[in-house]
Amino acid sequence: MNPSFLDKNIFKNSQVRLTLFYWLIISAIVLFFNVVIFGTTALSPTEISEMREINAPSDEIRQAIINARDREANSQLSASLFWLNLSILGSGGIGSYWLAKKTLEPLEQAHDLQSQFISDVSHELRTPISAMQLETEILLRDKSATKTEMRETLESNLEEVKSLESLVKVLLKLSQIDSDIKKSTINLNEVIKNRIEKFPDECIQYSATKIFLAYTNETAVDELATILIDNALKYRTTEKPIEVRIFREHRQAVLEVSNDSEEITQEKLDKLFERFYRNDIARTRNGESDGHGLGLSIAKKLVETLGADMSVRNEKYILDEKVNYKTTFKIGFNFGK
């Protein structure tokens, strides 16, 4: 049986149980008020005084009339309460179902994301492992394999092992991002320039309108710059240097990283920060997909943890009467004191 089907059933059953629990609470409240209302429906002193003025041959007949009127009042009250209770319990049942669904929705979404993440990780791990297994089996079957062929197989397997090691390191980094990152006032320009110096000069065009102090975490900003610059260099479609800019916008210090790219639809832009997502047209300059599709996921999580803002856009521009496209990642940091 499909595991996802079982998961859906678990949440469905939980929703039914939670709905019943909420509905029972509403029923208990309704029952309590019914008891209170019936307990206070005895005739008031004024009504009793009026009853005593009824002309009747005897006290027994007068009492019978009082009892009859009391029963009639109770009957009318019971009918009114019945319809009122029915409407309250009916609407309460619908409301309970909706509330139960809303209560479990975040848990279900988190569970779905976790299941998808596990599935993606399994796929990423299975691919290099399968490749190593296949190459090793072929080599073992070939009784006449030369030392050169054995060496080539071992080198290929070593590349796959390095790929696995890289994936594990990235996954660990993603899981270890602390939600309580300590922030302080930093020189944003200095952090970005120090990171840029680690890349070839001719690859990056840097500019800043002034010196900006940002209230954030220096290590996290350095990691963000590394991810965005590496991503821009990896997926640029021309020899043109990528652009790294720092400027002020809407009371924030903004870091922008841009590179020439293919046209990317808004639908695909929205998916760029998903774990393991690699755009079909977002290939490295040598035509091959590189990495595990986790860099931008780490960047997004870091930005959220820092309380900063991050966006991406793909724009068209004309150069030498030719249509070109540029992809820009933008992060806004709060100013430091």
User: Residue-averaged pLDDT, rounded?
Assistant: 80
Overall structural class, as computed from helix and strand content, comes to: alpha+beta
Give the termini distance in whole angstroms: 58 Å
Order of helices and strands: HHHHEHEEHEEHHEE
The number of helical runs is 8
Described by its quaternary structure, the protein is single chain
Which strand order spans the largest sheet, edge to edge or round the barrel? 2-4-5-7-6
Strand content: 15-25%
- State the major sheet: 5 strands, mixed
Rg from alpha-carbon coordinates: 35 Å
List how many beta strands DSSP finds: 7
Fraction of residues in helix:
55-70%
| Outline | elongated
Low-confidence stretches: 281-288
Task: Count structural domains.
Answer: 2
Strand and helix map with partners:
Layout (H helix, E strand, L loop, with lengths): L2 H37 L5 H8 L6 H83 L5 H29 L8 E4 H9 L7 E5 L4 E4 L1 H18 L6 E8 L2 E10 L4 H6 L23 H12 L2 E11 L2 E13 L3
Parallel strand pairs: 2-4
Antiparallel strand pairs: 1-3, 4-5, 5-7, 6-7
